[in-house]
Specification:
The chain has 103 residues and is mainly alpha-helical. The protein is built from four helices and no strands. The chain is globular and about 50 Å long. The mean pLDDT is 90.
Length: 103
């Protein structure tokens, strides 16, 4: 694959990831709180919804995909969708870090 082909494929994958986020975000939580699921789990399990705790919850959600990929590798039938989910979690983590209130 040359660089031009790679960039074209990457553009296509970016579109897929955006669609995935839009689809999944609509089914998660509350419209005005993109971090609703992380916040709810952090409060329920740890008793606090500070950004660091929500970040740890996000990592735990992401980890299920990493564990499956570590176990099955590229032979996992959900290989691509797991990696796409990891990308979405990574983007959410970046936004969570930027959105946090100063301590």
């Amino acid at each position: 694959m040359d660089r031009k082909e790679f960039v074209e494929l990457m553009d296509s994958l970016f579109d897929i990831v955006r669609e995935l986020f839009t689809l999944k975000n609509a089914s998660y939580g509350i419209e005005d709180d993109v971090f609703h699921n992380f916040r709810s789990t952090a409060l329920r399990v740890f008793g606090t919804d500070d950004p660091e705790t929500m970040f740890r919850v996000l990592l735990a959600y992401m980890d299920k995909h990493l564990v499956a990929l570590a176990n099955k590798g590229i032979h996992d039938r959900e290989y691509e969708s797991r990696l796409q989910d990891i990308i979405v979690y990574s983007l959410l983590a970046i936004v969570l870090g930027r959105d946090r209130k100063p301590l």
